[in-house]
């Protein structure tokens, strides 16, 4: 069990019978009152983010989350298809909501981790509740408009297309065929690889 002041960012908790990831936590005291912990929680089933305030008397259970390696296959009609690493015939899909924004940076046949949650009191492997992408991935640029000399009125950026079909802003010097490093959490260009 976690006390109200132990509910910190990057932890997994069980709140109202469902697993949540703590995105942000801020402990503070308002005037003469007792301290509270104001948190932002992401529901790992629905992907919905909610703000919840925990008081001194509140306790929550830490969620038992395990990681398992899987292989990404392809995306079709909003469904992301995966398979077991050792047995490609065991296939399963996840919705866009569960995969999250980082799904646009998945390259076919890449290995990623899936989050498995075992509800308290149950036995077995658990339920798949989401994926954990590497923070930075390297992808090839398939489309990049040519840089026009003197065209820095827009801040010196242009929209490029990556091999996965994702588009993002990158500096003018990026050309077609370059390999760039992307932050999957923010969806932003980091550097040329």
Mean pLDDT figure: 84
Strand ordering within the main sheet = 1-6-2-3-4-5
Q: Terminal Cα separation, in Å?
A: 44 Å
* CATH superfamily heading of the largest domain: Nucleic acid-binding proteins
In one word, what is the shape? flat
| Assembly annotation | single chain
- Major sheet size, sense and barrel closure: 6 strands, antiparallel
**Radius of gyration over all CA atoms, rounded:** 21 Å
Beta-strand content estimate: over 45%
The CATH architecture of the largest domain can be named as Beta Barrel
List SSEs in N-to-C order: EEEEEEEEEHEEEEEEE
CATH class of the largest domain: Mainly Beta
| Structural classification | mainly beta
Q: Percent of residues in helical segments?
A: under 10%
Counted up, domains total 3
Our count of helices gives 1
Number of β-strand runs:
16
According to CATH, the fold-level topology of the largest domain is: OB fold (Dihydrolipoamide Acetyltransferase, E2P)
Low-confidence stretches at least 5 residues in length (pLDDT < 50)? none
Helix-strand blueprint:
Layout (H helix, E strand, L loop, with lengths): L1 E2 L8 E4 L2 E11 L7 E8 L5 E7 L3 E4 L2 E12 L2 E6 L6 E5 H4 L11 E7 L9 E6 L3 E8 L13 E6 L4 E5 L7 E5 L4 E5 L1
Antiparallel strand pairs: 1-6, 2-3, 2-6, 3-4, 4-5, 7-8, 7-10, 8-9, 10-11, 12-13, 12-15, 13-14, 15-16
